[in-house]
Design a protein that fits this description.
ten-stranded antiparallel beta sheet, mainly beta, about 220 residues, three-stranded mixed beta sheet, disordered N terminus
């Protein structure tokens, strides 16, 4: 499918700057109760990502929309935080079944003619065990309306909620089989490029791509 690209190709991003900003997040030391295979993290990774700060990278953005390339800005914010395994949300309290995640907040802002687009997704990749993203939440705001899409892992599938100002898309709940999510690829690269899966894969396109193209969420072989 010629319109589908990996995250770094959907929006051509030219790095401008990378810096670290203070955050209040601390490493959670309580063990996960997951029976999945533990994820191996080296000491360099731990000392960088569990130091209570966030990594912020800003980019120039070239985004295809309505048959033209639009200029804008994109920002990637990475931070580790404790995650509640039951509610699949940032944990407010220390519990035995909490685990650590690498959260990526990714924003894109650009104009199409006179009106602006604002997109943001939050992707939660577990660090305590091997897994695809546990959760992705994404929203798009523009002058025509607002769209929201959320993926939540549920064993071997993803529960998906979709809310849109389009009647044909709005207020849906459905499931798809579990697969690698395109939204998690930047976070997966942070774990180490050599740890990326290779060969033919089933990949679910990014939530942003799905909503801009108004297509159903399903794994695609790539």
């Amino acid at each position: 499918m010629k319109f589908f690209y990996l995250y770094v190709l959907v929006a051509t991003l030219i790095s401008c700057q990378t810096e670290k900003e203070t955050s209040t997040t601390d490493e959670v030391s309580t063990p996960t109760k997951s029976k999945r295979q533990s994820r191996s993290l080296d000491e360099n990774f731990k000392s960088y990502w569990f130091d209570g700060t966030a990594e912020i990278s800003s980019y120039e953005l070239n985004q295809a929309r309505y048959g033209e390339m639009r200029q804008g800005t994109a920002v990637l914010i990475y931070v580790t935080e404790p995650f509640d395994s039951k509610d699949q949300i940032k944990a407010d309290r220390i519990k035995d079944d909490n685990y650590s995640v690498l959260k990526l907040n990714a924003t894109r802002d650009f104009n199409t003619g006179i009106y602006p687009y604002r997109m943001m997704s939050s992707t939660f990749l577990p660090l305590d065990f091997e897994s695809n993203a546990i959760k992705v939440a994404a929203s798009i705001q523009e002058w025509c309306g607002h769209t929201y899409m959320q993926f939540n892992e549920n064993n071997t599938s993803y529960d998906i909620q979709l809310h849109s100002y389009f009647q044909s898309e709005g207020n849906k709940s459905f499931q798809i089989e579990s697969a690698l999510l395109e939204n998690q690829i930047p976070s997966q690269l942070r774990l180490g490029p050599l740890k990326m899966p290779v060969d033919t894969l089933n990949i679910v396109p990014s939530a942003e791509f799905l909503r801009l193209k108004h297509i159903d969420a399903e794994p695609m072989e790539r």
